[in-house]
Amino acid sequence: MSSFNNYYEDPFNENPFSNHFSSLSNDSENNIKYNDKLLNNRIDFNTNNTSILENNENEIVNSISKNVISKSLKNNKSLAKKYSRDNYCCATHCAFTLDKNKIPVIVISDALKITDMSGSSFIVYVIRTSEPEKNSTLLEVRRRYSEFASLRNLLHQYYPSLIIPPIPEKHSLTEYAMKQGKAKDNPKIIEKRKRMLQVFLNRLGKHPVFASLHIFHVFLEPGNWLEYEHKMAKVSIPINITSFDVSEELQYKEIKKHAKDFMKCISILSKAHHSLISIYQNLSHSYSSLGASYNGWSLHEVGLSPVLESVGQSSDSNRLALCRMTSLLDITIIESLQEYNAFSKIIFNIIAWYKNNYRQYYYICNSLNKKQKRLENLIRAEEKAEKRAKEKNEALLAKENRKNNLKKEKENKDDSSISISDDENINDEEKDSQKDDSLLHDSKYNELRNSTSYPYPETIPTSSVFDNDLNNSIFDNNNNNDNNNDLKNKSIFESLDQNEINPKIDDDDIFDNINKPSSSLKSPLSQDVNVFSNGIIHNEPMSTSNDVASSTAIATTTATGKINTIKKINKNTTKGSRKSEIENVKNSISRLQQLKESQYKEIIKTGKEIQYDFTYFQREKYSDFKQIFIHYAKINREYNEQMIKVWNNTIKIWNEIRV
Amino acid sequence: MDDFNTLTWDTGFGYTPTDEDVKNEEEDSKMEFEEEEHQKFVSFTVPNSDKLQIEICDPQKESDGSNFFTTYLIKSKNSLEIYSQKENEVRHRYTDFINLNNALISTYPSCIIPPLPEKKVIESFITGDRFSPEFTERRRNLLEIYMKRIARHPVIQNSDILKNFLESTDMTRAIEQAKNDNNTVLDGISDSIVNSFSKIKNTNEKFVKAKEKLDRLEVNLQHVEKLHTNIIKQEKSIENHMNEFALAAEKFGETDVDLENIVNEFSNTLRNVSKNIGEKATKEENVYVGNIKGYINYCQSYKDTLKARDQKQMDFEGLSSYLKSYSDELKKYENNPAHISSGITSFVSRKFDEMKGNDPKLRREEKMINLQKKIEELKPEVEKSEEDSKRFDDDITKEIEYFDNFQIMDFRKYLNDYIDIQVESHQKNKKLWDDLIEKFENTTV
């Protein structure tokens, strides 16, 4: 740690800003507080979104969620105004978010090789944050590559749903293969990293979310980053990404395909670019030998000498101009393409992550559905059992009345037969419920397959609304309200339904707990049967056991009240277990409901975030590529201009000779 | 990038010039310039070289009943005295040019007659229809270059053969001329074949230098031509690869509806730029490299003329050595009447003569008379060949000067054309990029 201090010293003590910053960054408690506030802010921002969603549901379905986000941003802004200065976590925050047109420019002005106490050396990048027009430096700090990586990791930890700009790879294989030496010793790699890290920081600075993050501000401010990072990492919110079998499916197929195509095109494009560049390089070789041969020729000629010489010089200039153009083109095109390749990978990851979230949500819905069915059955069984019990009581009362009123022997037989029939009814009832239960377990899949398999209508519309929202927003950037997209979305959603109702899913670990209580329900019932059948071996399927039970019941009709009492005990035990079961199920339902709601919120939230960031990314991509093309055009134009100048100059020289 | 700087710098030189070397070289060449400046730039033009202007145009397919051929309209303007009209127009076919060329070669052996575009070369150049517009245009261009080179030559522009060619379609005179002159030339050559393998005895510094210079020029031209051909190849592959790049960009645009517009704009510009580069390469090939190739052939004609001069000198030298040997032998007889040549051969010949019954004395007198006769015959021949050779030398001295100046003029023009091609192409591309930049910078997101 001590080795870091030497390069963390603030070289801009005269700067009025720096005092303020150092006081802020020294107070690490403050940092956390600010950060918490920020996190809260973020949650506010998202709840704002959802509230808007709930309020103007129709509006959102029709209009694109872009508006929602801009609205929520406006809300956020007005909030910011409300809290005025309090809402800013630090002065850097002010600088970055005060005026959209005056976002500070971050420049990596230098890369220095530093050797620490132990003798090992590393490269630090001098990050200078300055006002866009005034050119005055606001902040300067030195960070090493690993710190950039840790910043990115930290951001990813907190904001898994956002597209975090990529940083250059640690070890490019081709670079490694070409140059055996370490990356830090290769000036080309360092230069490239310098440029790409600068792009990374500026992207963060322009990004509406990242720019207002205190993590980002601390990174730009002088101070020990690793300590701060360490603290932040401890506080980090756990992210549960459950490892589901992610096969080719789900609603983001289109986006994924899109991203894949994008990647493929990038590789084709860079290949084409490479071959073009290599020819340019060959051409510059040829021009240099052409220049040499003209110069050589000019030595042999008398009258033509100056003319040939000037042509030779022009050829040399041509070579230089070509070299310059090729290297510039290489930097702009290849590095941008590499960056966007990394971007597509990041998008892949985010989609996969979201897919998992969505699945989790679906599983919760599914098990909740099962639970509620179970509960319904249990309640029904309970009600029936109570009804029977009442009827029995009434029957018993009537019997007693009859006993009292009519008297003696004959009626005894009738009595028992009635009670047996009652018992049989109850047994049937119980067996029905048991059947239901087994059906629920065995043919869950079939049941869910039916069109009515979505037992919770309220979840589907909202999720589909949300889903469409998201897809719309993503596709809407490409295609304003194209009907095809709606169709696509529908089909995506349908395919999702089909895919989601997958028997495999039910076997997943998470739902084992949920399944357990329902399976434990089975055992008391079967025990009942066993008790009832009085030691008769009874492991056969339910339907036959039913028959056997009834036959045994008939066989034992002659047997007297003893059996009745046993039955009563049985009934009481089933009653008790059923009640506790209902309680259990109810509990788990409420638990699941809570889980479902939180998960739903999470999905909505992350969906919004993804959708929002994807929109932002698309917009950035558009302007980025426009910039790339402009750069490309400008480099080419510069080459052409240079050559026009060179040749015109040659003609000028000739005219002077002639005069 | 830095690596290949040093690698390719010295190709063609064989050594890497140090700074000092370069400095010295520069100083040297500066000095040279100062010395030669006046003479060099004043004598750029050849006198009267602009008095006859020739233009070839309007190729037409014609038939003489059984064969088809192409005729070209030859327009000429002149300010020369031998022509009765200031402007002439006449149609000729390719065969007529061959006859003209042959006639000129035989009539003016001391002039560098530029090479006529070869029939076979042209045909192999563009495989396919002999009457295709590309073929006729190419041939027209080459014939025009040929005619212009002839027309500017101070000697040939006043030739009757050329005058006849420019004024009438009738070529019989030229054909005859070629035959006649060929015969007389052949007569002279037949004698000299004997010692055609021997070397020139009195080498003339001037012509040796001219030959060396010509060889260097040829080497340089070949070198430059090769490099330019290489560059043209590379430019053409840039055209292809740029198109591929544009295609890749378009595919890329298809994946993203947002980007499609700007990507298409971009790839359109790329396509146009690549088209320009391709056109530039084709122009360089047809104009500049074509000119250089033509010049390499021209050098060959120059060489041939120099060889003819050497031949003339050798003729003279051979004849005079004959004359010398005859007169030497005659002197021997005169100085020593009883002299019997020693040696086995003379002994054998003497015995042979004796056996025949010839009187050696009589034979000696006969021989002396014969020698006298031969010497009498040879003397005018030697004088004539000396005169010939001297005239040839004078002519060729002028010719060398003409060629040098023509070369300077020609290459100035060629290089000018080359630069025009470069500038034009760069300006076109610059405009394309300008338009694209303007479009992109004006459209807002």
From TrEMBL, chain A:
Domain PX, chain residue ranges per copy: 103-226
GO CC, alphabetical: cytosol; endosome membrane
Domain of life, per lineage: Eukaryota
Recorded family membership: Belongs to the sorting nexin family.
Keyword Glycoprotein: no
GO molecular function: phosphatidylinositol binding
PROSITE patterns per record: PX
Keywords annotated in UniProt: Autophagy, Endosome, Lipid-binding, Membrane, Protein transport, Transport
Composition bias type Acidic residues, residue spans: 421-431
Pfam families per the UniProt record, alphabetical: PX (PF00787)
GO biological process: autophagy; protein transport; retrograde transport, endosome to Golgi
Upper taxonomic lineage: Eukaryota, Fungi, Fungi incertae sedis, Chytridiomycota, Chytridiomycota incertae sedis
The name this protein goes by in its record: PX domain-containing protein
Automatic annotation (TrEMBL), chain B:
Membrane topology recorded in Swiss-Prot or TrEMBL: Peripheral membrane protein
Any one Pfam family match given in the protein's UniProt record, by short name: PX
GO cellular component terms, A-Z: early endosome; phagophore assembly site
Domain PX intervals: 50-172
Any GO BP annotation: piecemeal microautophagy of the nucleus
GO molecular function per UniProt: phosphatidylinositol binding
SUPFAM superfamilies from the UniProt entry: BAR/IMD domain-like, PX domain
Location(s), subcellular: Cytoplasm; Endomembrane system
Keywords linked to the UniProt accession: Coiled coil, Cytoplasm, Lipid-binding, Membrane, Transport
Superkingdom, taxonomy of origin: Eukaryota
Region (Disordered): 1-23
Transmembrane spans: none
Coiled coil (UniProt feature): 200-244
Annotated InterPro entries: AH/BAR_dom_sf, PX_dom, PX_dom_sf, Vps5_C
Gene3D superfamilies associated with the record: Arfaptin homology (AH) domain/BAR domain, Phox-like domain
Primary localisation category: cytoplasm
Family under the similarity heading: Belongs to the sorting nexin family.
Protein name per UniProt: Sorting nexin-4
